[in-house]
Amino acid sequence: MNDIILRVKNLVKRYEDGFSLEIPERKFARGKIYCLVGANGAGKTTLLNLLCLLEQPDNGEIFFNEAQITGSNSFNIRRKVSLVMENPFLFSASVFDNIAAGLKLRSVNKKARREMAEEALDMVGLKNFSKRYARKLSQGETQRVAIARSIVFKPEVLLLDEPFTNIDRQNVELIESLIKVIRQRYLATVIFTTHDFLQARRLSDEVVSLVDGKIVDGAIENFFSGEVEESDGLQLIRISPKISVAALTKNKGKVNISIHPQDIILSRSSIQSSARNSFKGIIRKIYMEAGIVRLNIEVDKGVNFIVMVTKASYEAMRLLADTEIFLVFKATAVTVF
User: Fold this and answer.
1) Is the dihedral of CA 88, 89, 94, 97 positive or negative?
2) Cα torsion at 113, 114, 116, 122 (round to 10°)?
3) What is the rounded CA–CA span in Å between residue 147 and residue 106?
4) pLDDT per residue over 109-126, tens digit each?
């Protein structure tokens, strides 16, 4: 069996606003979990729409099991690839009817429809929700019903566009676990998007970074977009109304930046340093990774930095969630592109 289930070659999708997605080549292996990360407008949703054949590329080719997708085989392939959108639409009907609707269109008999729908609901943890009115569910429950509606067909590829947006922590954890179960049970390839880089690393086998419609090498952490401003001879990139990052760059106008988590120094108190960047933040999330600790630190609303420290440093500094911390990094640590 070929391990590559999806492959794109010289893929291009252009839009009237000037944005274009351009991917020379990319492969997705069977049974692996991938996460697409990048700023809003980087091309994550566009790529998902192309992979599930909702949109057609302007140039390039898409292969499924190494067979090029064409007009003659696209219908059959579309049945093997399923997409759950960021804000899924549920019919004004019961949860069961929402899940069974697609099965009915495919002429699945009534008994099989019930068995398949109940299996999917059980898998997403909503076994007793069959008779519930779909539009009365919470956002997290709605997301899980939408996933159930997709996996009822046992897709070979499941695409999830921002599945964790606007849902509570309990549903986030349930969907994270569900993604792993889907991969294991169906040997499905799962490709999802998120803005949470810690979640991306924790949940996926591979993180794919998109910047301005292009896949870039490596996983870009602490990725921000902003406008270049000059102040006292320094180049500052304003990434939020309150936060500007000093960098060494000759670029002008709008740019993207990233800072490697290992290049950021932490201190429990404000320190004097030659480093141009110093911010006060609050530790929001902590994740352990084989001797390394990754911290998600919020320095402004919507501005979170990922910082990497050794487990020994973490324990020595007694770092805890919701505690105040200071971040320091040099202007030379900022990559501008």
Assistant:
1) negative
2) 150
3) 18
4) 999 999 999 999 999 999
Q: Which residues are bridge partners to 243 per DSSP?
A: none
The DSSP symbol for 104 reads: H
How are beta strands 157-160 and 189-193 bridged, if at all? parallel
Distances in whole angstroms, Cα of residue 61 to Cα of each of 3, 10, 40, 204: 19, 7, 25, 25
Q: Please enumerate in sequence order all residues whose Cβ is within 8 A of that of 89, keeping only pairs 6 or more positions apart, or say none.
A: none
For residue range 272-299, what is the model confidence (pLDDT) as tens digits? 778 889 999 999 999 988 789 999 999 9
The reported pTM is 0.85
42's tokens: 């980087």
CA distance 259 to 220: 8
Give CA separation, 317 vs 148, 269, 298, 323, in Å. 44, 11, 18, 11
Report the DSSP pairing between strands 59-64 and 67-68: antiparallel
From the CB of residue 329, how many other CB atoms can be counted at a distance below 10 Å? 25
Give the rounded distance of the alpha carbon of 90 from its chain centre: 22
CA distance 61 to 58: 10
Between CA 94 and CA 162 the distance in angstroms is 24
CA 199 to chain centre: 8
Beta bridge partners of 330: none
Is residue 243 within 8 Å of residue 301, measured between CB atoms?
A: no
